[in-house]
Amino acid sequence: MSASTFWFLAVGGAAALTHLLVFALTQHQMWPELANALGFCIAFFVSFAGHRLLSFKDASTSVATSLGRFAVTALAGFASNELVFVLLLRALHWPALAALALALIFAAGQTFVLSRFWAFRR
Description:
Elements: H1 3-26, H2 32-55, H3 63-91, H4 96-119
Helix pairs in contact: 1-2, 1-4, 2-3, 3-4
């Protein structure tokens, strides 16, 4: 396993745990879809900082360029996350945390590819 892959998994794991924690703390105060979005917003900063400083520290793009590209990448990941989450939660009646956990895993692969080859291009 390359160092980039290791750090991507570690940072992604930290961001996913942040996302799940925010969701778990807020899901009873708002619609689950909004709690998912709030978790995403907070985890975005954990993810960007970790990926910029650890996963893709040799990126040839500026911080501003990487931030803009990563925002697009993360929003694309969140769109697929929310789609899977809503499908599992509303259509298949899964428990909210289980639906979110699977949705986060689903979106992670897409995020890695876009981050590695575009947002933090080497």
